[in-house]
Amino acid sequence: MLAPGYVEPSRLADSLSGYGFGVLSPSGLASFIASPLADLESLKPDWDDLPLDNFLKDGGCYRRRRHSCFIVEQQDVTQVPHRAHYQPLEYNALHGGMRRLFEPMAEQTVSRQIWSNLLREIARVCSSVKGVQPWYVEAHQFRIDTRHGIGRPTPEGAHRDGVDFVAILLVARENVSGGESRIFEFNGRHGQRFTLSEPWTLLLLDDQKVIHESTPIQPTAEGGYRDTLVLTFRAGKFLEPSDS
Q: Is the pTM of this model over 0.70?
């Protein structure tokens, strides 16, 4: 597995501006949010209670998820009433064009101080790159499992999400191979590939500059899975059908 090149937390905004992405190590993330890794670890058990994603058009049953939405305005983090997830076909050729209503994230997750710290600090970097403003955040908890064979983190393939920034945090990785992160310039020919293998590694992407995907995972032993937290940050409003 190719390891990512980590940047210092103080250089994350510069990496986003220059390359379209940046990766923080687990210790870098802890420094970035000014919280110990133990606080992040306290969130992990919530991934053991994710409902099955019943919207997969490839007929698979390898993905479990929860989804909730927030608005981050400087120091204020506000959860909004539960709403469906929507992407235009332009950004998701497989699952775009429909409202997908998933079960919300657990109250025990979003009420923790570490949760607000995480969203607030990522939003701060987004504002440093594109100006201070409210950020409309969609949070997705994913578990991709291999109990039936191959699991696909991004069944839609290489894509953009139709937002400003995408944060991908590796939460856990057990008994699997694959799951390589691949990043390509949206208007260019250069790309990067590496594998997030350390829990609480943060990959932050500028969705206007790069396309991304994660390759399928395969079991190396019984009970293999890959857990991630995906946070999208969009200026102005949440994606709605009128934006397609």
A: yes
